[in-house]
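Side project, low priority. Logging it here so it doesn't get lost.
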Amino acid sequence: MALTPDDVVTKQFQHVRFKEGFDPDEVDDFLDEIVVEWRKALAENEELKAKLAAYESGAAPAPAAEPAPATPAPAPVAETPAPAPAEAPGAASAGIIELAQRLHDEHVAEGRAQRDQLIADAKAQAASIISDAETRGREEVAKLERERAQLESRITELRNFERDYRSQLRSYIEGQLRDLDTTATSSGSTPVSAIGL
């Protein structure tokens, strides 16, 4: 169980009947949990301090290059790391922030590259679709123009046929009327009984 400060603040103990206070066993168990979590936190803190000291000694060769006195002087060594933890959180957080910023910039650049690629692909696809549509449109217009020309030619043929037909029909009817007139004038002197009616 990960214990948080809020857990400690909000912990409610059951009241014991017949006497005042809380159940001692429950309080002891909770305090044991606190001790376990606290020890974990302290161990983790020490581990991080050791890693930070190793990192700083590797990153800053000047303090490591100084020769250590031959006589045992653990006090200066102990004093040297002591200011480092005070600076370490700032330095570590600055490094983390820098790393996060770099990762952010990389992700943003990658996102922009993907965006640009998608836009370029979409534009190419749109250009292809427009080109195909224009080609089909031109083909349809050319086809309709050919059909229109054929229909106009057929209409012209039909008009010529109508004109010729009317003219022939008029000539025929006029010829029949002339024949009728000539027959009527010649039969006008012949009695009807002679015609055979």
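Brief comment: The chain has a mean pLDDT of 78.
Revisit when time allows.
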